[in-house]
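Pasting as-is:
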Amino acid sequence: MMSERTRVAILFGGRSDEHSVSCATAAGVLAAIDRDRYEVVPIGIARTGEWVMAADDPARWQITGTTPPQVDAADAAQVLLPMGDSSREVVSYHPGAVPAVLGQVDVVLPLLHGPFGEDGTLQGMLELAGMPYVGSGVLASAVGMDKHYMKIVLAGEGLPVGPYTVITDRQWRTAREDALAAVAALGWPVFVKPCRAGSSIGISKVDRPEDLADAVEVARAHDPKVIVEAAIIGREIECAVLEGRQDAPPRTTLPGEIVVTDTGHGFYDYQAKYFDADGVTLAWPAQLPEETTAEVRALAAQTFEALSCEGLARVDFFVTETGVLVNELNTMPGFTPFSMYPMMWERSGLAYRDLITELIELARERRTGLR
């Protein structure tokens, strides 16, 4: 008999530096998704870009010990998506063998972080395939991935952002001294970041001019375009946003606060996020004045709409003595059960499994193409 369950393709892995983080996110979702309601088709994307059938085994994809999980394309059945509106049937094949039809997929849940997954490229492919998918569309994903253009859009909408400068690949090669001078004008310290990366990968805190060039090179190892932000003295506050149902406005949680308790971390870096959970806590709700809490939630919803986001997003803020600044928005935030986004919804009364269900159902209601 045909299954009456909705068929969900879960995509994870990918070509970015956040490959293992994506695998860990998939581990959480595979363990929690409502199997009575959804039939799962796990599809891994190797670092080299191949799409393959992946193990439906949460333990296989967890971050444990010192060896991060990764999708291995060797000897695995490769996967092809359909193109066009006539079919949503996914095909698997081994090179030289007859392809096998895996059946129709009703919705795609892309759990990819970083370039080639969270930046609009995958979203464009799914639009071409006519397949509904969870999360933001092409434009919002692309702008949300690029910290430079994100700030331009937010500032254009009148939202408060901090001082920054951008070093392009060509400028670093042809006008390096001008780039360094623009950074110095921000004052010290500064944070040097790959413009299109996440999970705090490639980020350096720089306190002295003589360390700046090396920090730029570290960031450029992940992205030839670098953004340098002035350090903001304030509290790091996060707010989770969920698309409203039936044209309702975006839903927001009470804000949470990232508290780095391990003094070995100069800031909330990659190690603190994924390998040193004891050194970081989420204070929720953040102890803020009532009017500041209301402002953060309003700004989170405005940021979500300014970028034309869909599905989910986490908006990060700095709360300073002089006001609230929007730091950035993540269109596919960390989504393990212990990540900040699901934790804030869990504490707001929406359990992890129910949050997954809500996101899938929102995607099923949303048409593909222009909207």
